[in-house]
Amino acid sequence: MSDLTAEGGHGAVPTGPEVPVEPGAATTRRDWPLYEVFVRGKRGLNHVHVGSLHAPDEEMAVHAARDLYTRRNEGVSIWVVRAADITASSPDEKDPMFTPSGDKVYRHPTFYEIPENVPHM
Amino acid sequence: MSAPALDRPLDESALQGRFDATIAAGHRIEPRDWMPEGYRKTLVRQIAQHAHSEIIGMQPEGDWLLAAPSLRRKAVLLAKVQDEAGHGLYLYSAAETLGADRADLTDKLIERRQKYSSIFNYPTLTYADVGVIGWLVDGAAICNQVPLCRSSYGPYARAMIRVCKEESFHQRQGYELLMTMMTGTAEQQAMVQDAVDRWWWPSLMMFGPPDDESPNSAQSMAWGIKRHSNDELRQRFVDMTVPQAEVLGVTLPDPELALDRDTGRYRFGAIDWSELQRVISGQGPCNDERIARRRAARDDNAWVTEAATAYAEKHAGV
């Protein structure tokens, strides 16, 4: 039984090396583009990334996102954007991208010592 | 997604060190992080089979949509089956962040090159099965899934949080359905007991083989993909379920089931692992039917995909 383990929520499946995980050779089917989905949970909040889906165009992506990500009033507004159109910083750039702010502690209010008897500050 | 190129390659041991440190600190691995190839492959396999299970899992209960005993039950079941579709799609979305292709994963399922949970190869013979699936099968899934909300791979953990929020509705609607039937006629009560008798052991098998026969588990736990062992989760499920069975008034079909006063946990009888092997290797009661229907859904609806693509292209002026 060495090729079995409990994986995922619904139970046991084979996980041995014979189970393929690499994408197959190019399929003849043209797949719909991938859209990333952002939902505003309620008024006053930002749109937050919730996942992705495939759709033939933006309009159908919004309709599909409503059915997929807001079945229980999880949102009041949806954005979709083609995944291919997103430019992202890479974690490998973490040092050059984000460390400059690390030594600028004077940008935080806690850097400044104010006597306790100064009110409203 | 595209990223600005950066010509500053780290050697593999440094990357591995950073990965290990992230896991050790209890932080999440995110899609664009470097990760060991084995970690990525294990996740693709696990997330894909989990997604496949949700999608195939629509079938046994979907069989009862047109025969639901009331409009209320039909609306509930429809919402539940729609949730299963949603769960599958959340998970395919997570798998795609690892470089998998969604349509390709479906092809692999249909070609039987990737698997889904053995539990969905059993038939739903009466409406009581709908209730028992919610109570036992979704109950077991919750035991498995709640710890996965803390899985080390960010997109998987986030998908599981969404799934778990919805799974609670699934279990409660099932238990409520059974409670209703148990206040009905003797025939209805017998239907519930019969369904419990058929689903109890397959539900325990959902947690996978015993720990000493599950060699892959150790690596998955080291990687933080998996948080508890098969036997630990199975025991937790039994301990949660026995008191629920008592309230319901059904008998779990295991003469050896007994409370161990010292540990406060329930002992249970031996599981027939040859049955799990048989069902997983394709010899279950419904394996062929499940795959045939999934194949038909892909092939018979291909024209819808093509029509929508043509519509989109026409309106985009391509």
With strands numbered from the N-terminus, the spatial order across the biggest sheet of chain A is 4-3-5
Reading off the top of the CATH hierarchy, the class of one domain in chain A is best stated as Alpha Beta
Could you give the count of β-strands of chain B? 2
Low-confidence stretches of chain A: 1-9
Distance between the termini of chain B: 23 Å
Provide the CATH architecture of one domain in chain A: Roll
Oligomer: heterodimer
Mean pLDDT of chain B: 93
Shape of chain B: globular
Give your account of this protein's structure.
The complex is a heterodimer of chains A (121) and B (318). By secondary structure, chain A is of the alpha+beta class. Chain A has a domain at 27-85: Phenylacetic acid degradation B (Ubiquitin-like (UB roll), Roll), CATH 3.10.20. Chain A is 14% helix and 22% strand. In chain A, β3 and β4 (47-54) form a beta hairpin. The N and C termini of chain A lie far apart (66 Å). With 318 residues, chain B is mainly alpha-helical. Helices cover 66% and strands 2% of the residues of chain B. Chain B has a two-stranded antiparallel ribbon with strand order 1-2. In chain B, α2 runs antiparallel to α4 (71-96) and α6 packs antiparallel against α7 (154-182). At the A-B interface, β1, β2, β4 and α1 of A face α2, α4, α5, α6 and α7 of B.
